[in-house]
Amino acid sequence: MGAMRPRGPVCGVAALLLAVTAGCTGGAEETAPERTTAAATPTAPATRSSPAPSPAGPVSLPALMAREHTGSGLRLGRVLARTSAYTRYAVTYEANGLTISGVMNIPRGEGPFPALVLAHGYIDPDVYVTGQGMPREHDLLARSGYAVLHVDYRNHARSDDDPDNDVNLRLGYTEDVIGAALALREAGRPEIDTDRIGLLGRSMGGGVVYNTLVVAPGLFDAAVAYAPVSAHPEENIDHFQRPGDDPLVDRIEAAHGTPESNPEFWRQVSPLTYADRVTDPLLIHHGTADHTCPLRWTREAVAAFEKAGADVELRTYRGEGHTFGPRWRESMDVTMRYFERHLR
Prior knowledge:
- It contains ten helices and eleven strands.
- By secondary structure, the protein is an alpha/beta fold.
């Protein structure tokens, strides 16, 4: 089990690194929607809520440290699919005042089942569909006896809009993941073991994992990250956005300054600055042939977490690229043994 977990609102600790702003486009599992056979008629096009502004105050890790995070109102909506192993539901919940949508797979049989929250990689919100990003993981983990909640993030699918999210380094994604765990606990559903909750993210979602562990230490029992982005926001900008002349770069730097003109801001939005706050065990998988998110980024993060005394483990896979191919199932077997050890 992880450290003692908060039962009520969480005072967070970390701004989302630009891992989430970077636009890390991992490959098939992050660009192609999962196709399932629905057990009900298709949902009508979602109606977006009125824009809800990002929280007032400075954009920084210290600002999120002081924020009281809330999550509640988990609602299981229509059935999207039924398999021999689980039922797939459309869901919504509240996170810090915003409604966030997602998809949840609940195993068949007697619960309560340990729960996992999934944080997907970058997919353009204009083409994103609910539950998109990690279909392999979502299916396998549910078949293995986990209740799995895949978070859509704000500005995605049926989630509420946050118009300031991009220029504010997409801090909101971390809040959405924290809210998911709190909503799972608050729901008190008999199928879900609220004393056993883990977190899994890949690519950009791996950056969300880093920040969540710093924002809300002890909220999860364990976390796993696949091929995460850099823990330095400016490095993600330089790698993913600046080469394509993304206009968002100018907006971010106009709002917050450049690393040269405002180094303190950029120091305060890296989770590595606050690595000593991590209390939850963390497993990271990374392929040696990953040209989207270089392995050196993960090695640097692991070194920083280890120096700070965190329980972190790195598994590397020779020849594997960003999305994992031949050794994906091997890596997932390691992941499930890891969760088995820490959640059961």
